[in-house]
Amino acid sequence: MTGGPADDAPTPGSRAPDALLSRAGVRGDPNRDQHFLVDDRVLDRLPDYATEIDADTSHVLEIGGGTGALTDRLLAVADRVTVIERDPDLTAFLREEFATEIDADRLTVIGGDALEVDLPDFSLSVSNLPYGISSEIAFRLLSRDRPLILMFQREFAERMAAAPATDEYGRLSVTAGHYADVEVVETVPKEAFSPPPAVESAVVRARPRSPDYEVPDDDFFLDFVTAVFTQRRKTMRNAVRNTAHISGLDEPDAVVEAADEDLMGRRAGKVTPAEFAELARLAWEVGEPR
Ligand SMILES: C[S@@+](CC[C@H](N)C(=O)[O-])C[C@H]1O[C@@H](n2cnc3c(N)ncnc32)[C@H](O)[C@@H]1O
């Protein structure tokens, strides 16, 4: 993990982020999740995190194109890029600024909400996400089983990548880890953005994988984990009993009785994903899920 902007020089020939901001004539509105990356070195490293794992760059998806500083870097490594941007002024600007790439069929700009529009069949996503929709968009992307390089608020990124029994480990770590190997590859200071956000950011790299455990049903497993973590201060015994309504279990007591006693005496933060999976299998068998 690198510690923030440092070392290498910006890529020659790429569009300067401050020039893009001034051509677009925007300042960035935090109420609309607009914090534009203005640090060339961070912008240059984002595609590198994908190429260094040999990710397929035939069709790169960017959520939240903004003024196109990252789009420009992605076009340098990808055959084709699709950008989804909600702000109509910014989509108009992107279409004008990148008219040549659009005409050459190398760039598609979709105007709309990334949570609502149909996502294309992308091979990789590299995005500086709108933080207001971090969780929803992250899981929309994770479920596509493609490599992802995503900028989040630092705390969210660290929770996503956390290992069992650490302070950050929780629902997000288990559910994201169900789809991918997740790592924080860089922390990014506020000053790398214009306007600066209130908190630090971090870049996450997610590589799709099949989990090394089996679950009876993906949705049931994810709901079960979520339900247990909503009561993370309780022992598993009490959490499983109390959260039955969320996970849809009709017979939570039967699950508690059949489960390993040591496991039931722990808190959710000390339960590994594989142990959650084993418990979900048991719950599926004896808990009479609806
Ligand atoms: C953090 S900025 C990143 C902009 C640019 N990619 C960069 O790195 O400078 C997030 C962008 O997402 C856009 N945005 C916010 N909510 C969105 C949504 N629901 N769907 C699509 N774009 C959204 C904002 O208008 C903004 O341009």
Automatic annotation (TrEMBL):
Pfam families: RrnaAD (PF00398). SUPFAM superfamilies: S-adenosyl-L-methionine-dependent methyltransferases. Residues 1-32 are annotated as: Disordered. This is Probable ribosomal RNA small subunit methyltransferase A. S-adenosyl-L-methionine binds at H35, L37, G64, E85, D113, N128. Residues 42-210 form the Ribosomal RNA adenine methylase transferase N-terminal domain. One of its GO terms (molecular function) is rRNA (adenine-N6,N6-)-dimethyltransferase activity. CDD domains: AdoMet_MTases (cd02440). Keywords: Cytoplasm, Methyltransferase, RNA-binding, rRNA processing, S-adenosyl-L-methionine, Transferase. It is found in: Cytoplasm. It comes from the Archaea. Belongs to the class I-like SAM-binding methyltransferase superfamily. rRNA adenine N(6)-methyltransferase family. RsmA subfamily. The gene is rsmA. GO terms for cellular component: cytoplasm. PANTHER family: DIMETHYLADENOSINE TRANSFERASE, DIMETHYLADENOSINE TRANSFERASE-RELATED. Specifically dimethylates two adjacent adenosines in the loop of a conserved hairpin near the 3'-end of 16S rRNA in the 30S particle. May play a critical role in biogenesis of 30S subunits. Its EC number is 2.1.1.-. PROSITE patterns: RRNA_A_DIMETH, SAM_RNA_A_N6_MT.
